[in-house]
């Protein structure tokens, strides 16, 4: 089976849905942020602080490249990984890209306690989230094969919607 790449803003539910898909399909789950943290032996915040964002983005590209010879993966992608053309192309070539969306209010409620989201450092509020989300929206929508709104739905329903898509069927 082709890989499923879950994309979308921080707090859209990518990690939770990847775990639920893993439970349902038995595919292998890849949590990009976690993989990078393990490989670097550092938290995402520390990587940003020590080496800067472009370095982190390079690590995302490297990881996506390393996944291209695998199938059946359920990849929870970092929220910014798809902004780079090469990354989006790697995802497209190897699977189905599923965009998860949620309102800025929902996102804020989910991420407000997070200390490991450097992109939101010092800007943890609904208005900032709304603005950044607006900036990224066109990009997310352009690369996605499928888009799923998650507000008010449980993980079970969202997974059923994903697996009903022809490009995601298992
Ligand atoms: C980022 C999202 C984060 C993480 C990093 C940058 C972004 O991943 O990769 O903090 O630019 O949107 P999650 O979407 O899993 O929080």
Ligands present: shikimate-3-phosphate
Task: State the helix count.
Answer: 8
Strand content range: 5-15%
CATH superfamily: P-loop containing nucleotide triphosphate hydrolases
What is the CATH topology classification name? Rossmann fold
In whole angstroms, how far apart are the ends? 7 Å
| Form type | globular
User: Which strand order spans the largest sheet, edge to edge or round the barrel?
Assistant: 2-3-1-4-5
Characterize the biggest β-sheet: 5 strands, parallel
- Count of DSSP strands: 5
Query: Portion of residues in helices?
Result: 40-55%
CATH class category name? Alpha Beta
The computed structural class is alpha/beta
- Residue runs with pLDDT of under 50 for 5 or more positions: none
By oligomeric state, this entry counts as: single chain
Q: How many domain regions?
A: 1
- The radius of gyration is 15 Å
Judging by the overall fold, what is the CATH architecture?
3-Layer(aba) Sandwich
Series of H and E elements: EHEHHHEHEHHEH
């Amino acid at each position: 089976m082709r890989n499923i790449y879950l994309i979308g803003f921080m707090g859209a539910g990518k990690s939770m849905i990847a775990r639920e898909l893993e439970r349902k399909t038995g595919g292998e789950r890849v949590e990009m942020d976690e993989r990078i943290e393990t490989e670097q032996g550092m938290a995402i915040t520390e990587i940003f602080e020590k080496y800067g964002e472009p370095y982190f983005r390079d690590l995302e590209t490297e990881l996506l490249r390393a996944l291209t010879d695998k199938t059946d993966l359920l990849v929870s992608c970092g929220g910014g990984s798809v902004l780079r053309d090469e990354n989006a192309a790697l995802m497209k070539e190897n699977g189905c890209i599923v965009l998860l969306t949620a309102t800025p209010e929902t996102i804020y409620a989910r991420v407000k306690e997070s200390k490991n989201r450097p992109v939101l450092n010092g800007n943890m509020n609904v208005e900032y989230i709304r603005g950044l989300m607006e900036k990224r929206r066109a990009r997310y929508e352009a690369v996605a094969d499928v888009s799923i709104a998650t507000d008010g739905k449980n993980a079970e329903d969202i997974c059923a919607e994903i697996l009903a898509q022809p490009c995601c069927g298992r």
